[in-house]
TrEMBL record:
Residues 1-23 form the signal peptide. This is Uncharacterized protein. It comes from Penicillium cinerascens. Keywords: Signal. The keyword Signal applies. The keyword Signal applies. It comes from the Eukaryota.
Length: 344
């Protein structure tokens, strides 16, 4: 659950694995796919894909505008209050996972508890199954490599469309700027899956009783929500900007907050929500982003032993020997988050 702690993060990169080894060449490596070779120990599955990874902080801000319906007002203890929480986060911006995708990249933004033990996570495990994850934003359904039989698979429904249909602003170089409107969320109690899920989360916010807090169940509104007929709201808008040093993700939209401690609904609110991520490149887990390209492109380095700053660095390009040619660079084939929205 969310808690109202604030975490000020100023690190440029972290190491989540204490020891790593670049092993023998990976005979299962397929250079046509967006996966890294399986020859680096300690590389947990959130770093499975070719791309750039950023460590930083996600700030979530709430601005209550109405009560449970348009006929209810916000109570005095919540009215005109700055309601915000911050969490440590990881953003992955990668080559696209779906061949059918028209996105230039995929993205996955994950918001997680402090002091998370990444080494305890299993492979091929969707973020929503990890108890340490508070919330995630992914651009498409995750595709993973099975570490045992080396097959590639999607988790859940494999043929769901992209959750975020990114539009890449025209450019000749980094930073890259992408935007997407979310119009196919699963919203409202009892609604049937219709495509993309922004996900729900819990957060501690002030209740209507002075000096007291409640746990609120937060839903980002898209499509429909009961009781808000006549209230002017818009679908969520996501913006992603990144280069070889920093990345920003912003989600602007509207939310429904339902208190877990109020049967009458008097504490429930609807209003504006802004989710902002600011992160710095994690060179330990990142391939090299080509800055002078019109579309995001990476030089594959993790698992190839050609970048001394990477996890599992070795003096010889071990994975390259099994990949044959095409080792120097890899273009995104139009491309979580993040998700990859990574969500995260």
């Amino acid at each position: 659950m969310f808690s109202p702690r604030r975490i000020l993060l100023h690190l440029v990169s972290w190491s989540l694995a204490p020891t790593t080894i670049l092993a023998a060449p990976d005979p299962t490596y397929n250079p046509s796919l967006p996966f890294r070779p399986n020859n680096v120990t300690g590389l947990v599955d959130l770093y499975s894909w070719v791309g750039s990874y950023y460590n930083g902080t996600t700030r979530i801000e709430f601005k209550p505008l109405i009560g449970e319906t348009v006929n209810n007002s916000v109570c005095d203890n919540q009215h005109d209050k700055e309601l915000a929480v911050e969490f440590e986060s990881l953003l992955g911006v990668t080559e696209k996972l779906l061949n059918t995708s028209q996105n230039a990249v995929d993205s996955l933004l994950t918001v997680w508890q402090q002091d998370t033990n990444f080494s305890s996570w299993l492979s091929a495990e969707t973020p929503s199954l990890r108890p340490s994850i508070e919330w995630f934003l992914e651009s498409t359904r995750g595709m993973y490599q099975d570490p045992v039989n080396h097959t590639y698979q999607y988790l859940g429904e494999a043929f769901l469309p992209d959750g975020l249909n990114y539009t890449l602003a025209p450019t000749k170089h980094a930073p890259f700027n992408l935007t997407a409107k979310v119009t196919d969320n699963i919203s409202g109690p009892g609604s049937e899956p219709s495509g993309y899920r922004l996900g729900n989360f819990e957060v501690t916010l002030p209740s209507c009783k002075p000096g007291e807090n409640d746990q609120f169940f937060i839903t980002i509104i898209s499509n429909e929500w009961p009781g808000i007929d006549g209230w002017k709201w818009t679908d969520p808008l996501v913006n992603l900007q990144f280069d070889s040093e920093t990345a920003n993700v912003t989600l602007s939209g509207y939310y429904a907050a339902d208190s877990s401690n109020s049967d009458s609904g008097s504490d429930n609110t609807r209003g504006q929500i802004t989710i902002s991520f600011l992160g710095f490149i994690d060179t330990y887990h990142s391939d090299i982003l080509v800055n002078n390209s019109a579309s995001p492109t990476w030089i594959r380095t993790v698992g190839f032993g050609n970048n001394s700053l990477n996890i599992g660095y070795s003096n010889h390009a071990s994975a390259a020997s099994c990949a044959g040619s095409r080792v120097t660079s890899w273009s995104v084939v139009i491309t979580t988050a993040v998700l990859v929205v990574f969500a995260l």
